[in-house]
Design goal:
The complex is a heterodimer of chains A (about 400) and B (about 150). Chain A is of the alpha+beta class. By secondary structure, chain B is mainly beta. Chain B has one domain. Chain B has one helix and nine strands; from the N terminus they run E-H-E-E-E-E-E-E-E-E. Chain B is globular, with a radius of gyration of 16 Å. The mean pLDDT of chain B is about 95. The chains are: A alpha+beta (about 400), B mainly beta (about 150). At the A-B interface, strand 6, helix 4 and strand 7 of A face strand 1, strand 5, strand 6 and strand 7 of B. Strand 6 of chain A pairs parallel with strand 1 of chain B, so a sheet runs across the interface.
């Protein structure tokens, strides 16, 4: 019987994105942004877009695979897939879904994409604007609990209370993203460094999260091309293999109105062990991490839950020098991430993880062989994945 | 006189078939939450089935609106037009130890800059919005003083 794993079965052979814009500044429609990112990823892979036969996305992406396939001249649409729920928690899961389709012979060449023009559609950061709310929202919205920051911050507050985490740990996470963005011309915050004083003096969004603890709102699109591992060497770039991709969340993570039993969590406690098991690796093997910053507190908890730092040691671990490429103990968000490169619902983090394996990051970690992505902490379901070089197979 | 904690204009709660007894109870100054008629365990928020024993026969049972502060947030950035002039406000998550540790979301009454203490004892305050059409009631919270008085 074939071993039931994605390890080493699929490779990323192309990555692409549009220009990344601040919210509302894209001159192009969201659908065109999606097409541009996919065309750019194909060019990177050296293939024609018509060779794509599968599409995978997440978070109810508005850009329908049938219409994309029609526009791109795809000859034979075999796989169109949407990861349910979880917002940015679906990013690495979408890659896992695409890989599963390839590994099981359902498709040959799948693009994972996300296009988002928050200037053309609703903003994630705005509350409900209706006269009434019913269902679960009726038990939170009338109390002013409206935005994603409000939905998640009490998880982090409880975690920080239980483990004595200080504000400086969050500041280091924000500053690492901004520091790395200063080398990355794609980054919206390129040329806009962040120092400690600016962070400390920035306004609160919701305590303990300052403005710089919260992701941007952007317009743009990102895409990556996956094929079977057997074909990986036929493409222009250093092969980048998927070693694991898993999704999910703990028991009753979806319990209504903040009643999940294990509350002070980024939802990775059951996911991370499965990730390492599939990759046949452990936390000590991870060379570089991209961890989704919806909010810095989620990054901190998800790093802990992936075993990269003990909960009691956060104040010592999350210091800027530890988090910076090339020499930090755990280089984190080396493109600038959601805070400072672009909030493309986290898919940009996956592209950056591939660049680390290809040795083409603007904040390259020397000898990066194992590259991890953690997608969408604190939502449910979440997901994470690990990419590796040929040497890791 | 408007004595509500937050300025008016946020979306009002509309009862559904699932949670109507809860909202009706609040209007009468009573906190009613779900309890399974088979395993006698409490659960919240409202669900169609007992999440422990998968029994559909759930009752709404009155519990004392008293608990301890499980987590909190002080909100500064307004994300709704109604909150534009609000200034900071506090949202709390309150755990009810006498009802299987169910949790409720509300506001913590009093100075929004007051000390926020995880684990502190709090008690419910029924905030009636009688002038709203249709009227509704929210359950708010305040610290219980060391001598047990409110």
């Amino acid at each position: 019987m074939t071993q039931r794993t994605l390890r080493g079965r699929v490779a990323v052979v192309g990555v692409g994105e549009t220009t990344y814009y601040k919210r509302g500044q894209s001159p192009d429609a969201e659908f065109k942004l999606a097409l541009e990112a996919i065309v750019n990823a194909c060019a990177d892979a050296g293939i024609h877009p018509r060779e794509i036969d599968g599409f995978a996305s997440f978070s109810n992406d508005r850009n329908d695979p049938s219409q994309l396939a029609a526009a791109l001249g795809c000859r034979d649409l075999r796989f169109s897939n949407m990861q349910w729920g979880g917002g940015g928690g679906g990013g690495s899961a979408a890659i896992g879904n695409a890989a599963a389709a390839i590994a099981t012979g359902q498709a040959e060449c799948v693009v994972v994409f996300r296009a988002l023009a928050q200037g053309q559609f609703g903003r994630f950061g705005q509350g409900a604007q209706t006269p009434t709310v019913s269902g679960n929202l009726a038990h939170t919205v009338p109390y002013g609990l409206l935005s994603p920051a409000h939905m998640f911050v009490m998880k982090y507050r409880r975690f920080a209370h239980e483990h004595g985490v200080r504000q400086e740990a969050l500041r280091a996470i924000a500053m690492a993203s901004y520091a790395h963005a200063q080398a990355n011309e794609r980054a919206v915050m390129y040329g806009r460094p962040l120092d400690e004083q600016t962070y400390d003096e920035s306004r609160w969004i919701v305590e303990p999260w300052h403005l710089y603890d919260c992701c941007q709102e952007n317009d743009g699109a990102a895409a990556m091309i996956l094929v079977s591992a057997e074909r990986a060497r036929d493409f222009p770039h250093l092969p980048c293999y998927l070693l694991a991709a898993v999704g999910g969340s703990q028991y009753r993570a979806g319990a209504p109105v903040h009643n999940t039993p294990d509350y002070a969590t980024s939802s990775f406690r059951t996911v991370a062990p499965r990730l390492y098991e599939m990759a046949r690796l452990g936390p000590a093997d991870i060379d570089v991490v991209q961890s989704y910053e919806n909010f810095t507190g989620g990054v901190l908890m998800s790093i802990v839950e992936h075993g990269l730092c003990k909960a009691e040691e956060c104040n010592d671990f999350f210091v800027l020098d530890n988090l910076l490429a090339p020499d930090g103990q755990l280089p984190l968000n080396t493109s600038g991430g959601n805070l400072a490169e672009c909030y493309m619902h986290g898919l940009g983090l996956n592209l950056e993880a591939v660049r680390q394996i290809r040795r083409t990051s603007t904040a390259q970690v020397p000898r990066a062989e194992v590259s991890m992505v953690i997608s969408g902490p604190m939502v449910t379901p979440v997901s994470s994945c690990i990419f590796g070089s040929e040497a890791t197979l | 006189m408007n004595t509500a904690y937050l300025k008016p204009g946020l979306p009002a709660p509309a009862a559904s078939d699932l949670d109507r007894p809860y909202w009706d109870g609040l209007r009468e100054g009573r906190l009613l939450v779900q309890r399974c008629r088979r395993c006698d365990r409490y659960q919240w928020g409202p669900e169609w089935i007992c999440h422990r024993c998968q029994n559909f026969d759930l009752a709404y049972v009155e519990v004392e609106p008293r608990g301890r502060l499980y987590s909190h947030q002080r909100v500064w950035h307004p994300v709704h037009p109604a909150l534009g002039a609000q200034g900071p406000y506090v949202i709390v998550l309150v755990e009810l130890p006498h009802a299987d540790d169910i949790r409720l979301v509300g506001n913590l009454l009093g100075d929004p800059m007051q000390d926020l203490r995880i684990g502190a004892e709090v008690e419910g305050v029924f905030e009636h919005h009688a002038d709203h059409a249709p009227p509704f009631t929210l359950l708010q919270w305040r610290y219980v003083k060391a001598d047990g008085s409110a």
